[in-house]
Amino acid sequence: MKENLIKVKKFVEKHDGIFVTILIFIMSLGYSLYIKTLAGDELWNFQNVYKIYNGYKIYVDANVITTPIFHFIGALVFKIFGANFLVFRLYNIIICIALFLGVYKLFKSLKIGKKKSFVFLLIVYLLENGIIGFMANYNTLAMVFVLFAMIVIINKEKIKRYELWEAILITLIILTKQNIGIFYLIGLILYTILNKRELKNTIKILGITGMFLLIFIVILYFNNILEGFISYTILGIKEFDRENRYVGKFSIYFIIIAFINSLLILFINTRNKYGKKEEKSILNNITCFAYPILGITYPIFNIAHIRYTLILQYVLLFYMLNLILKECKVKKYEIKNCIINILIILIILIIGYYTISSIMYAKSYFKTILNNKYKYSDPYFGTLFSNEIEEKIDKVTEYIQKSEKNVIYITSDAALYMIPLKQNNKVFDLLLLGNLGRDGENGIIDKLNRLDNTTILMNKEKQCWQESDKIIDFVKNNYKNVGEIEDILIYQYKN
Q: How far apart are the C-alpha atoms of 389 and 383, rounded to whole Å?
């Protein structure tokens, strides 16, 4: 029995990356799948990926406000495995596995050992598994590339042509979420200031990155989407900076973590006792990247964006705690063993809880979707709708199909009805502040003024803070209410 346990232990240690991947997959599967679909980021991201899959042009037919890697990979996943919500949620699982695997690899790169790295990973997972509930999105994917870019920097001596690999990863960050790419570049500049001997290498990295981005711009130009790209990803973003400040317990927690880390950084750097020269150098290098990444919270300071910034803050925190605890001598060895045993038991319990509950959620999910005979199963196979939403989709889509006029839906849940119809109304499919492009609300009003033979559907009440009061008021003042479908008003132009 003991020999078998030793063999298992050696196997796990040898293939630790595979073990961590499988473990994260099992613990996360059910939580990713068993979530009811609502009008939110998952639906909007799915809609844009689905448009690209169906041959529509990004930044022309889909008002995407981020750089496109997430959407292109998503469309490729759809082509390979099928275009539906089950595949999209598995796409989320893959990204989340990569995220937590990146955290584990980063801890290992900090030279704290496999066992400690695994323990720290589980703690980070416990604190940050809420990211799984945000579903497949560009923020998670961008942070995956951030983690691996930092791993390359830390292990640069071991990696041949590391400048090329770093440039590739930086390009992927920028082309997944532009602002995260900018904040990472700021981190790289701070890192170079701290390590002046790296100036030549940094220049090389930036040069290669610039070449990749130039190629990207040329591709946009020759596909006639450069103008749309600039409009949505750069010039239209300013409208986000409205009514979007989140102040609550989690934001206070975020500030406290960042403040504690700042104090610990100062404490360790001013004490010779804690950490060798190399360890302090690693600490300061992590700091160069961890603090600029806090900028992700702008312009939308909410729980989702805060969570992404906390990933590196936790890495920073646990690395510093490891340095401090190494110097804390425990007089009685029995006490030390007791603490270790307690931690092991807690870890086993955590793994057990998340594994069992995830399996139960996954079982319930697959039982539900396999018994679901909903008529819009393509592309909605794998999603969980309430009966109320299913009935609403049926009624609205039936109205649109029978209407002799063009029909657009101008509030935040438009995607619910346009996805199954494979209907493309361009910017009108996601009419939210920040998604309106260079001309903003006035540009949309101008488009509404030029519509001909068109019916507008609009919710009685606002569903999202990003819905424009100005556009809503324009419709109410210039269009005639001719009926309603449940809580959806039907408008036609007065003239």
A: 12
Please state, in angstroms and rounded to a whole number, the distance separating the CA atoms of residues 219 and 213. 10
Q: How far apart are CA 458 and CA 448, in angstroms?
A: 13
In SS3 terms, the chain reads as: CHHHHHHHHHHHHHCHHHHHHHHHHHHHHHHHHCCCCCCCHHHHHHHHHHHHHCCCCECCCECCCCCCHHHHHHHHHHHHHCCCHHHHHHHHHHHHHHHHHHHHHHHHHCCCCHHHHHHHHHHHHHHHHHHHHHCCCHHHHHHHHHHHHHHHHHCHHHCCCHHHHHHHHHHHHHCCCHHHHHHHHHHHHHHHHHCHHHHHHHHHHHHHHHHHHHHHHHHHHHCCCHHHHHHHHHHCHHHHCCCCECCCHHHHHHHHHHHHHHHHHHHHHCCCCCCCHHHHHHHHHHHHHHCHHHHHHCCCECHHHHHHHHHHHHHHHHHHHHHHHHCCCCCCHHHHHHHHHHHHHHHHHHHHHHHHHHHHHHHHHHHHHHHCCCCCHHHHCCCCCCHHHHHHHHHHHHHHHHCCCEEEECCCCCHHHHHHHCCCCHHHHHCCCCCCCCCHHHHHHHHHHCCCCEEEEEECCCCCCCCCHHHHHHHHHHEEEEEEECCEEEEEECC
Tokens of 248: 């609550």
pLDDT digits (tens, 9 = 90+) for 184-205: 999 999 999 999 999 999 999 9
Longest dimension (CA), the chain: 88
Pairing relation of β-strands 454-459 and 406-409? parallel
Which residue carries 């799948």 as its tokens? 33
Domain ranges of the chain: 16-136+329-385, 386-493
Look at residues 145, 196, 150 and name the one whose alpha carbon lies nearest to residue 319: 150
Place of tokens 């919500």: 85
Token pair listed for 231: 């409009």
What's the order of all strands across the beta sheet hosting 454-459?
Answer: 406-409, 454-459, 488-493, 479-485
Q: How many angstroms separate the CA atoms of 430 and 85, rounded?
A: 19
Contact criterion met (CB below 8 Å) for 169 and 149: yes
* pTM for the structure as a whole: 0.93
For 428-476, write each residue's pLDDT tens digit. Answer: 999 998 899 999 999 999 999 888 889 999 998 888 888 888 999 999 9
Asked if omega into 379 is within 30° of 0 (cis), the reply is yes
Question: Does 247 score more than 60 pLDDT?
Answer: no
